[in-house]
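Input for the complex:
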Amino acid sequence: MALFPETMPRPEPDMDDAPYWEACARRQLRFQSCGVCGLLRHPPAPICGGCHSTEVTWVTAPAEAEVFSFTVIHHASHAAVADNLPYVVGLVTFPGLPGVKLVTNITDIVPSEVRIGMPLTLWWDDIGDGMYLPRFRPA
Amino acid sequence: MASSARAPHIVGVGQSAYTRWGGIQDRSQFRITAEAIVAAARDAGLPVSAIDGLTSFSNDSNEGPVMQAALGIPDLRWSAMVWGGGGGGSCGAVSLACAAIESGQAEVVVAYRGLCQGQGRRYGRAAPTRTHGSFIAPFGLFAPPQMLAMMVQRFMHLYPITQDHLAEVALSFRANANRNPLAVMGDRTLTKEQYLASRWIAEPLRLYDCCLETDGAAAVIITTAERARDLAQQRVEVLASAHGSGAGWSTGPLGSQNMPDDTYASTNNRRLAKELFASAGLTPADIDVAQIYDHFSGMVLMALEDFGFCGPGESGDFVAEGNIRHDGGKLPLNTSGGQLSEAYVHGVNLIIEGVRQMRDTSTAQVADASTCLVTGGLGVAPTSAILLGRN
Ligand SMILES: [Zn+2]
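Predicted:
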């Protein structure tokens, strides 16, 4: 069962980020990297801010991540999350992927026990219609 | 700049009544915005027809050319808007106006903002059209308190900042609002006990760490030193103005949160602050009073550090020592009550309070204040600030 109900907003891929979501649908977490200079960027963007190349490659993220920051949310700003309160939104980083921070959820933990620097492991949440979202739990 | 005949001055301020969210239902947002502009012109002693420039920010829906026609402004010579959501562009709109005034593209510019959240989409509600929204909404990150709570959390992890320091910001501003009859929270006191008992919105932010949601409109009029000389009010010089953003911020916390590691827990103002002070030939020690954009208490602490009023990580001690209080503080902050307790008009009410301090008309007047820092929205992109001086 998905973390949030079906009424939760879903990703709406656009021309620049569609390959990211196509990889998620295959349960692969891939970040965009410049095809010329290797600079990582997230969210996906159509041009490299370092060398201005439009060539891209995709780098698979490790399954291990670390909490960079987080918040425990107690107020439902969208009706879909009303039964999930409180829930944890985390911002996570990955070893070897400088310049990438990912907004995600930290699950399977009492919210008051989440700490910055805590090691996490990736899991894929089946949100239906062939789409999966990357979420994390304590390693 | 002070000697220049075209040095920009704020000569008029106007506002609607401020009410809680949804409180204005009998008049349209456009109407109260137009009324605030007329009030600002009246305050300045200028006919509305003298206005020839219009500026706003935050994708304000009260469109300039429509406003021109509604107000019967004969010639619009200049109009512009600062990109970006939230209040990041509040002082940015003034900085645009200053550029237009100094360059001679316009003579009398009004910077305005009106929002009646009960009449349209409530500000901060989840919107599929938000840039990079796909990277946050499916994870339940919907509203600015949640988004900026992540930055405050990191800030409190890096430095010895505690809940008591956040509380001191909220309590100080409420005490100021209690002196201001026009403040939405003017007659509501707040104790430390009430603060600590209030509900979490998004940890580490409680209810009282978050700004009000207000229906209201506010406007300020900027013109040249030469023109200001003949007008009704004590003129207030814009000593310096700036807006911009640091490397890699993109939509910052309102988007994917992928700011650089070393500026993530910041107001995105460190370079801007240095350039702002240098441009006015002032240092933080020269500032008598400040109106710091208080969407969230923790961001005010960050701003005290980023604008150089104290060192990195020292803002907690700075506020604990009473420095931001109106009674006896060395840098009284948000003397009208700010957006935590006066009104949330995306920072234009803070600019108006800065002008009141320079005119000696604040309800929490700082004696002999001759300089005031006002900031735009903090920790967003772009962000902005102005320095005001009594002249
Ligand atoms: Zn490159």
